[in-house]
Amino acid sequence: MTLILAWLSGDNLCVIADTRLSAGQRVSVDAAPKIYAVPVVLHSPSFADGPRRDPAMGFAFAGHTAAGHMTNALATAGLQALWSKDTPTPPTVGQEEIRAHYPTDLATFEGLVFGWEGDGPLAYTFEITWAEGPTAVANAELMDFAKFGLYAIGQGHRVAQEHIDSEWKAGRKATGYSALQAVITNDSHHSVGGSVQCAITTKHGVELKPVLQVDETGRAVGGFMGAGGSHLGPIGDLVPFGSGPVIIHPRPKHHAG
């Protein structure tokens, strides 16, 4: 399971999540991305210069890791092969076979899809559930950030809310980062852990951001998806992240009067 937090910062939508993979079972590899930037590529004979690349959309999930990664893989493949047709083609026998096996694959999970639409960011929460037979139902809801300043999705959302309430009572402003960190360090939710990952949506699309946490001595620790900066480098001609990290400063200590 995973805890996802989302909020608006000015005109930008911020989404963060933890990276724990093993539900706290302490396996050798215990970190994996839960937030993705999904490329969008349009193909049409009318494009004289070849396929058109639109701003990336975002995808984040909380729940069964294999199902979430498979959904991201399908979305990545599908959204890079968008093609305009007058009549849709019927599903193949192979597609029907895969659909029939989904209920036995523990593919139930929840999350959000997000991106830039028109003049601002837009996000939907979703939850995949199963009806009778090989039928999946996806309940989607538009996120209203004017009504709810901060959304919490997945495991540990009650602990996150308790942290926000306690900070408010102490006269301090809680943030999405501090709320997620409170759940990561809470022993009652072993499936939420690892480090903090972050994505920010602007008019240019969804960008994955490295996260550095500054301790009380001023030393910055952290990295990108759980990896330190010394482990990161260009992948071919691509840079894993763009315009600089998100830096989390230490929380001010509260002194009782």
Largest sheet: 6 strands, mixed
- CATH homologous superfamily placement: Aminohydrolase, N-terminal nucleophile (Ntn) domain
CATH topology: Glutamine Phosphoribosylpyrophosphate, subunit 1, domain 1
Overall mean pLDDT stands at 75
Percent of residues in helices = 10-25%
Order of strands, widest sheet: 5-3-4-6-7-8
> What is the count of distinct domains?
1
Question: Secondary-structure blueprint of this entry?
Answer:
Elements: E1 3-9, E2 12-18, E3 35-43, E4 52-63, H1 65-79, E5 82-83, H2 93-101, E6 109-117, E7 120-130, E8 136-142, E9 150-154, H3 157-169, H4 176-184, E10 196-202, E11 205-209, E12 211-214, E13 220-223, E14 246-248
Parallel strand pairs: 3-5, 12-14
Antiparallel strand pairs: 1-2, 1-9, 2-10, 3-4, 4-6, 6-7, 7-8, 10-11, 12-13
Describe the structure.
InterPro entries: Ntn_hydrolases_N. A hairpin with a 5-residue loop joins β7 and β8. α3 packs across α4. The strands form 3 sheets. Strands 5-3-4-6-7-8 form a 6-stranded mixed β-sheet, covered by helices on one side. A 5-stranded antiparallel β-sheet has the order 9-1-2-10-11. The chain has a 3-stranded mixed β-sheet with strand order 13-12-14, with no helix packed on it. It has a single domain, classed as 4-Layer Sandwich (Glutamine Phosphoribosylpyrophosphate, subunit 1, domain 1). With 257 residues, the chain is α+β, with helices and mostly antiparallel strands. About 5% of the residues have low confidence. The longest helix has 15 residues. It has 4 helices and 14 strands.
